[in-house]
UniProtKB/TrEMBL annotation:
The Peptidase M28 domain, residue ranges: 2-136
SUPFAM superfamilies: Zn-dependent exopeptidases (SSF53187)
Pfam families: Peptidase_M28
Organism: Buceros rhinoceros silvestris
Domain of life: Eukaryota
Protein's cellular compartments: Endoplasmic reticulum; Golgi apparatus; Lysosome; Secreted
GO cellular component terms given for this protein: endoplasmic reticulum; extracellular space; Golgi apparatus; lysosome
Keywords: Carboxypeptidase, Endoplasmic reticulum, Glycoprotein, Golgi apparatus, Hydrolase, Lysosome, Metal-binding, Metalloprotease, Protease, Secreted, Signal, Zinc, Zymogen
InterPro entries: CPQ, Peptidase_M28
Quaternary structure and partners: Homodimer. The monomeric form is inactive while the homodimer is active.
Gene Ontology biological process terms, A to Z: peptide catabolic process; proteolysis; thyroid hormone generation
Protein name from the UniProt record: Carboxypeptidase Q
Similarity comment: family membership: Belongs to the peptidase M28 family.
Record-linked Gene3D superfamilies: Zn peptidases (3.40.630.10)
Length: 137
């Protein structure tokens, strides 16, 4: 089973988009790095995807989806860090009630950082294909 963790690089060479979402790519990378540094052994495969071409119509995400959709039942959740590296307040989530309850339980672990809110929906150009097909995001 796969937990997909991701962010995209959509800053233009002369633009100011590095926080949206170059920062999200590094947040995702660091999350997996911390799990490794803590010596944790996840029960699922943690897959980091650093998306490209989000600003050009999400063609990187579309290509990835096309290549992997035949194994969609192997994806337990897809996550995308977007909107920069500002102070977080919680997670946006799209999925069924059972999955939402699991996410809410996990978010209680973040109580010391006051990042516990679970918002009613998630969106993201890079994970929308998966969520439309029923994968929690």
């Amino acid at each position: 089973q796969i937990v997909l963790v991701s962010g995209h690089l959509d800053s233009w060479d002369v633009g100011q988009g590095a926080m949206d979402d170059g920062g999200g790519a590094f947040i995702s990378w660091e999350a997996l790095s911390l799990i490794k540094d803590l010596g944790l052994r996840p029960k699922r495969t943690l897959r980091l995807v650093l998306w490209t071409a989000e600003e050009q119509g999400g063609i990187g995400a579309k290509q990835y989806y096309q290549l992997h959709k035949e194994n969609i039942s192997n994806f337990d959740i897809v996550m995308e860090s977007d909107e920069g590296t500002f102070k977080p307040s919680g997670l946006g989530f799209t999925g069924n009630a059972k999955a939402r309850d699991i996410v809410k339980e996990i978010m209680t672990l973040l109580q010391p950082t006051n990042v516990t809110d679970v918002y009613d929906n998630a969106d993201g150009t890079d994970i929308d294909y998966w969520m439309r097909d029923g994968v929690p995001g």
